[in-house]
Amino acid sequence: MIVDTIDNAARYAPAHRLLPDAFAALRDPDVTTLPPGEYEVQGRSLYVVVTEGKGKPPSEAPLEAHRRYIDIHYLLSGEESIGWKGAGECVDVRVPYEEGRDIAFWEDTPTTWIRMRPGMFAVFFPPDAHAPMVSTGTLRKIIVKVALESIERS
């Protein structure tokens, strides 16, 4: 897991070949003003999900993890807390891994909470189970999905 501000994003670009493009997408003013939805940047290898809505209490935010994608959560407005726990430490399965959706959910309690403010991002790799959207207010954020391996369009 990586947590920082967008101003420092270049420091983390060497972690994956698509991270420079992912951070460039987050800096694009057109991307930050898109309505909620899913938008391809490089097909299914790199795409953004713009989301906006009311946050939820921690009890309604299960831990989730992915196997094929890295998630970059970038907060545009509001204040958010994101729970974290090592996926290998999660034992209380809520929804087993679904390959088609590339996601698994657990009922476990996060071991760490990250407090996010606008302009901050958090990068979650497959070993990072995370519980996003915890807030008492309205959030607007972008989630960049970065494929670990190249994914061809079907």
Overview of this structure, please?
- The chain is mainly β and 154 residues long.
- The chain has a single domain, classed as Jelly Rolls, CATH 2.60.120.
- The chain is built from two helices and twelve strands; from the N terminus they run E-H-H-E-E-E-E-E-E-E-E-E-E-E.
- It has helices spanning 19-27, 29-32; strands spanning 2-5, 37-42, 46-54, 63-65, 69-77, 80-86, 93-98, 103-106, 112-116, 120-124, 128-134, 138-147.
- Strand 7 (93-98) and strand 8 form a beta hairpin.
Helix content: under 10%
Number of strands: 12
CATH superfamily heading: YhcH/YjgK/YiaL
> How many helical stretches?
2
**Level-1 CATH class name:** Mainly Beta
CATH fold field value: Jelly Rolls
Give the helix/strand class: mainly beta
Domain count, please report it: 1
